[in-house]
Amino acid sequence: MLSRQRLFWRLRPYDLPGSDRVFLQACRDNCAYHIRHCPGYAAICEHLGFSPKRLQTTEDLAHIPVIPTLFFKRRALFSMPEWRMAMKVTSSGTSGRFSRIGFDWGVILAEAPMVVNLGFRHRLVSPKPAHCVILGYKPHKSNHTGVTRTMFGLTHFSPPLSRTYALQMVGGAYVPDLDRVAEKLKRLERSLFPTRIIGFPSYLWFGLQRMEELGLRLKLPKGSRIILAGGWKQHCAQEVDKGTLYALAERTLGIPEENINELFGAVEHPVFYNACRRHHFHIPVYGRIIIRDPDTLEPLPMGRVGLVNLISPLMAATPTLSVMTDDLGYLTPGERCGCGISSPYLTILGRVGMSDIQTCAAGAAELLGKGEAF
């Protein structure tokens, strides 16, 4: 699928109008591939009367069969044998179930230029070595989660001098040790090299609170940066607004707000969404977002709140061309941001109740027969 490579090698990451033609071609090719190689996906398309030839304009993207992320948590759906895949990763499984998503080798070739391009665009790439403190899982042979892979990958935006993890495997389970991380940060304050803190916003919040309890106030070296990836998930009851979190980070670590980056994505949709300097998630050329009415699933206009539908022709091993998340959000015209990026930006408000998503997922499963759940 050369159209996928042409899309992901584009140098202007937020020129949506300029990328529409190649994006539509990549979606047509991706959809046709999954129909040929995945009987389950073909059955869904046939039931809905959808053909890749229907994709003639960007408005037609709304007609691509939408598969809820919850469906992938119930069923394994692949478009190639496992021996041909580069890897298989899973979602975090905070709801008790997890998605299994296959990555083909073409994804690696497509992701690399996307990540490098956006990394330079958002000042994440630096030739200066840095110490990395990861507020997430230390890689382990039993851990196949996408977020672990992502956080490890983020340590390579600058040459990593060291890696310290907040969550380490102990006795077959991950155990947090925020006190050890706090002590490590205290030592890094005297380093000649900057520190990069990478991880969940929830663990950053808990760690900073713990440092305040210990009376630790640091001034990390110039150029130190925080990169947040992943949501609050099982800690949503303790979630705080960005302003409060960033202010505490500057007060406790000496890292100013302009050196805090935030990323958004999903294992079922591993497109690299970077927050701009005003902390908004603008849509890059590698994906498109449709907001849908939770009751009718019809597309909603800009500014209306609904379910977040993510579209990208990135994956060939798993049919994730159009996936429905359980997030509620809305789109805003890019011009209203003021950061200089013209593409619309996504605001996530939280997670919706699961009844509508489960109904949609059950409908897709019904088309495939009973099969084997996992």
Tell me what you see in this structure:
By secondary structure, the protein is an alpha/beta fold. The longest helix has 22 residues, at 16-37. The protein is globular and about 65 Å long. Helix 7 (178-188) crosses helix 8 (201-213) and helix 8 (201-213) crosses helix 9. 32% of the residues lie in helices and 23% in strands. The relative contact order is 0.16. The two termini are 30 Å apart. Strands 6-5-4-7-8-9-10 form a seven-stranded mixed beta sheet, sandwiched between helices. Strands 1, 11, 12, 13, 14 and 15 form a six-stranded mixed beta sheet that branches. It has helices at 2-8, 16-37, 39-48, 69-72, 105-121, 146-154, 178-188, 201-213, 242-253, 354-367, and strands at residues 67-68, 87-90, 100-103, 130-137, 160-170, 173-176, 195-199, 225-229, 260-266, 269-274, 281-282, 288-292, 306-311, 322-332, 345-351.
Write a compact overview of the structure shown.
The protein has 374 residues and is of the alpha/beta class.
What tags apply to this protein structure?
single chain, 374 residues, alpha/beta, seven-stranded mixed beta sheet, 10 helices, 15 strands, disordered C terminus
